[in-house]
Amino acid sequence: MSRFDFIPIPLIGLMLVQRKTIEDQRGFLSRFYCAEDFLTHGINKPIAQINHTLTRKKGAVRGLHFQRPPHAEIKMVSCLRGEIFDVAVDLRRNSATFLHWHGEILSAANRNSLLIPEGYAHGFQALTEDCELIYLHTATYHPETEGALNVADPKLNIAWPVPIHDLSERDRNHPFINSEFQGIAL
After folding, report:
1. What are φ and ψ of residue 172, in 5° steps?
2. Would you call 135 a catalytic residue per the annotation?
3. Are residues 95 and 183 in contact, defined by beta-carbon separation less than 8 angstroms?
4. pTM of the model as a whole
5. Catalytic member of 33, 41, 100, 135
């Protein structure tokens, strides 16, 4: 019996993963990852890195980050505390949904995760104070293949749920999409 429901989202390859729980009077058990279950949904790469973040301020945005080949990664994002608006942008060259974005509410309460395939940019906005996230990555971080897009890019037109109150200097200076941007070739 799988401990997950994998729900396809209109952007090809992007999936909402609902973690099922086993609960009793003591609390609950929730599985974050099982190679066997993920393999049945085409995810056949091992987890190479796990990151844990804290975002203190409601309205703060992080992103939009991605890794280019040969270090392109599948990423699964889960919220351990608080609530976020999690966004993935399809950057795959020649994709039918190129430069389309999708957002999902992830929270400690709903126990949902966003499974983001290779070739997507990722970012999120904290909808509560003190949001903690855990990220499972199929590749380790390589700064030489990192890329990013500006969260305020009008070509993406992301509908952030609340005004952006906190953005790092680094994220504020990420580039806007121009006519030379051709996406990611996987």
Report:
1. -60, -30
2. yes
3. yes
4. 0.94
5. 135
